[in-house]
Amino acid sequence: MRNVKPGSIQAAVQAAIKAAGGLEAAGNDLGMSTANLSRASSNDEDRPGGLGVNHLHRLGRILPASAEPMAVHFAGLAGGVFQPVPACGSLTSDLSALMKEFADVVALHASAHSDASDNPSDFTPAEALASAVEVEKLIRASLIYKAALEDKANPQGVRNG
Questions:
Q1: What residue numbers bound the domain in which 52 lies?
Q2: What is the distance between the alpha carbons of residues 13 and 9, in angstroms, rounded to a whole number?
Q3: 25-68 pLDDT, tens per residue?
Q4: CA of 24: how far to CAs of 10, 21, 27, 70, 131, in Å?
Q5: 21 and 68 assigned to the same domain
Q6: Residue 53: its H or E element
Q7: Which of 1, 50, 115, 117 is the most exposed place for a label (fewest CB within 10 A)?
Q8: Helices 53-62 + 9-19 axis angle, to 10
């Protein structure tokens, strides 16, 4: 594929094509020649439109892993981040996992600010790192729970981000 600027839409398109198995595999899935697909992922005056969103949508539906680079790219443009959320199980188990992660964050916070801490008025570097790990687990559990609720509310499978 062509050299493109890191962080550009062309870089995201190329990452999506790579995740789909490369130019040949993506071209087969989209019904495009590898030459046209390669050219569509460039940013030049002869083909200013690049690869169309309909093609990217179709590729993402066929191979969901190819949608992730696009989600990461557009989440960054929107000032956010993309966090994949796996398929959800029962709400009961997800709620239980969420409550456990919340309790872990609270317990670490309480421990860091107790007399047993080397710095009870703030986090030590080790406490901050341990708390950050637990907060990341809490965020993931919260997103899984949110997705489970959205799946329950919308059986067609379209999530609200």
A1: 9-77
A2: 6
A3: 988 988 888 888 887 777 665 555 667 777 888 888 888 888 99
A4: 17, 8, 5, 19, 45
A5: yes
A6: helix 53-62
A7: 115
A8: 30
pTM: 0.58
Tokens 């997103």 sit on residue: 143
Inter-CA distances, 41 with 26, 57, 130, 159, Å = 12, 15, 42, 28
Q: Which residue has the tokens 């489970």?
A: 148
- Residue 1 is assigned to a structural domain of this protein: no
Q: How many domains does the chain have?
A: 2
Q: How long a stretch of residues is the chain?
A: 161
DSSP assignment of 73-92, as one string?
Answer: HHHHHTT------PPP--HH
